[in-house]
Amino acid sequence: MPQKPSLPKGTRDFSPVEVAKRQHIIQTIKKHFERYGFEPIETPSFENSETLLGKYGEEGDRLIFKILNSGDFISKVDDVTYSSKNSTTLAPKITERALRYDLTVPFARYVVMHQNEIAFPFKRYQIQPVWRADRPQKGRFREFYQCDADVVGAKSLLQEVEFVSLYDAIFTDLGLEGCTIKMNNRKILSGVAEVIGAKHHLIDFTVALDKLDKIGEEKVKAEMLERGLSAHAIERAAPLFQMEGDISQQFEQLKKLLSESEIGLEGVIELEEIYNWVEEGGLQTAKLELDVTLARGLNYYTGAIFEVAAPEGVAMGSIGGGGRYDDLTGIFGLKDVSGVGISFGLDRIYLVLEELGLFPEKLTQSLDYLCLNFGGEAEKAAFELVMKLRNQGFRIDMYPSAAKMQKQLKYADKRNVPAVVFLGAEELEKREFIVKNMSSGEQSVGSLDNITATFQ
RNA sequence: GUGGUUGUAGCUCAGUUGGUUAGAGCGCCGGAUUGUGGUUCCGGAGGUCGCCGGUUCGAACCCGGUCUUCCACCCCA
After folding, report:
1. Strands A122-131 and A39-40
2. A343 with A371, same domain?
3. Is residue A331's beta carbon less than 7 angstroms from any atom in nucleic acid strand B?
């Protein structure tokens, strides 16, 4: 009995139209990456487990897909480990490889391994799928694409400015106007933790703060208490909950709050400089905002942090993120290489563009013309015409058999062909053909002896 | 990983307190129309009701398990 086929949780098939739409996004992103001087690389879909494990925190490790060793791997495990039934000690012995979890850590590995061939600063982009053993939800999949651009070996804040501009250029080109680029700085978060006397609770402090827009001030404070912060510390952090005014006023409020913290002030000054640079150049459609509660994906960021939110009214998690990480390659033994990068979430951008109806109509057209088939001598003449037009670069297909016209036209309809070509016995006799526009219904006559007069 | 939710035709969904042969709309195929599609009319095909097991004379419906979907946590693109 044949089994019913199914797809693993969190994965999807893509139809021709969906692939065309995804390619449209990818092509747009690539075009702008290259315009800004980034070069493409690719890395394997799986890495050695030790390359990935421990880089994303405990939570991240849990979400990494581990690949079972091949061969008789159980017999190689010692009895103590085997009988302990402890996944954390057993797993490393039977899974020596794992699917990549993002593109940044494999990139860091790449940089370290190829450091002698690379001309620094190295600007690379990478568009490949990543895998996470997460529980799927809307816009969260177990297999999804990331589109990353990073620069390593350049400490200048000019890099951050370029990335903001790149975000703006790409989202504008995709027709996705009104995106918000939220910006924060790890140094500000560290500084705040320092001045409120919660230096050792930095992570607890930021994780709770990050939820401000979602659960509100009271609940955030409650969570901070629960996470071990003192009431006094929370009280001192009050100005964070009351940031107001335009961005430069917010910078002033932060400076006041952080006046005792060298690192905190440094963070504010960095963002201020980025902001001033961006202001000078101007953005096309995106808005750059300061968001001191932004703290996600904090694991390896050390400086600026970015996150992009879709235009208002679209319920979707962030569609892009990034930041500066000063010592990512350090874990692989290469010190003092500063890096900064951004990422685009292809799958989420797709969902947003779909929801807003922003995909160009043209993408659903896979053919410029369909040539009908009337059989006999006309079929040969039609095939000849089709081949000539293909050689000229047109996307043209010929119906493979002399089926009823009704059927052939219905097929043209379904394929969303803008125009069909008729070349039957009647036309052949006069050395002609007819071109019918499928949306207007208009027909025009062309000459077989001068096809370029019709097709150009 | 925790708690909840969902699954019936290709798609969107009905289906009464458990009771003969499980329905609709859209789509699909054929005809009206042998050289003109997207409109209309007529006809037709298509389902082991997610899967496995249990209760019952009898299960789409009740119970258990499992997979899937979506949601809230966790975390994140």
Report:
1. parallel
2. no
3. no
